Queue: 2 jobs
Job 1
Amino acid sequence: QSALTQPASVSGSPGQSITISCTGSSRDVGGYKYVAWYQQHPGKAPKVVIFDVSERPSGVPDRFSGSKSGNVASLTISGLQAEDEADYYCSSYTSINTLLFGGGTKLTVL
Amino acid sequence: QVQLQESGPGLVKPSETLSLTCTVSGGPIRSSSHYWGWIRQPPGKGPEWIGNIYHSGPTYYNPSLKSRVTVSVDTSTNQFSLKMYSVSARDTAIYYCARHIHTGSWPVDNWGQGILVTVSS
């Protein structure tokens, strides 16, 4: 199984909104409402910011939102802040009871 | 508050077996709400899921690693373990033990600090 496809990098200015895409197939992203998104700062373990496509864990700001259309899931961060600068990874449950990660997207806050 | 802590050697020789243990403290591993698993991340690359186990035994593995990996759980010691056989330099990575929530996307809500394992002679 191949990794989910994400753009290598995105950028935005403070206060703006950005969207990161995650492309899979009907066997993973497109087949279920089971996509999660992780934020990872350098030297730290990843932290989940969205699960089950659009659910936000307690403590995660509502500036973070998730959606899905067909085989593409998306993470949107509105009102960008300097602390949002990090690597972001999507993951999806698959039809063979496994978990697949994306290659990651580096978010730069200009 | 539940905490996870990996332990094991940081250096393994090629063709040998990598063995790691994760100790869960602050809560029972026998939880109906969670899976326990391992995720690795090569330096500078994205995470790769290795496998999950439920306290009562069902295990799930990454197909690309399944032939070389065993994940097991010991409820008496509140620990779970990873064994990876016949390792090579490609297995060099930070290995995290993880607690997954028992919901559709298996989100990880609790991570160990990670242990860097280098495969080298």
Job 2
Amino acid sequence: DAKTTQPPSMDCAEGRAANLPCNHSTISGNEYVYWYRQIHSQGPQYIIHGLKNNETNEMASLIITEDRKSSTLILPHATLRDTAVYYCIVRALGGGADGLTFGKGTHLIIQP
Amino acid sequence: GAVVSQHPSRVICKSGTSVKIECRSLDFQATTMFWYRQFPKQSLMLMATSNEGSKATYEQGVEKDKFLINHASLTLSTLTVTSAHPEDSSFYICSASYGMSGNTIYFGEGSWLTVV
């Protein structure tokens, strides 16, 4: 699976949009971009995933650049409960038998 | 989303004993489950892939005789830490593939193991 690069930490004011970048310049054509987050002492929580089109769900939006070499996770109205480590992971299509490879992620801190 | 549950959430055991952690997919069948370990302030490390009805596949450096994995049904995988030592104290997390081609992986709540 392709490697991802994320900033180690970010701050965001409560109520503002949190934009978390991820670089995956070596992504292959059959690899999806996945985002998970881990709140302290809990298992990772699935947020969203996409291949090449922008995606939106009740938690977040995922914007993938046209060349697919980078993406941005957007939490539209951050709350204190969104403080967590956010992981950007790329994974091949049909990789149901393959586990996820976690990097160090971005520690997002929402400030009151 | 799909629900994956682990039990126990916390366990303390004596050095030299064995401890079993269960991972269940509550509302879907999972032919493949994964076990991770996470030490404080570190990221998750994949330990092994658990396949229903067959032997688990272990990542390099993970002792298969120490971390016994059984995936006896489509909704249950177990991890047994045998002859536990204090250095095995960690946060153990399971996950399961869900959906077409297993495109989404959901995680359990995690299990804290403390070996004293």
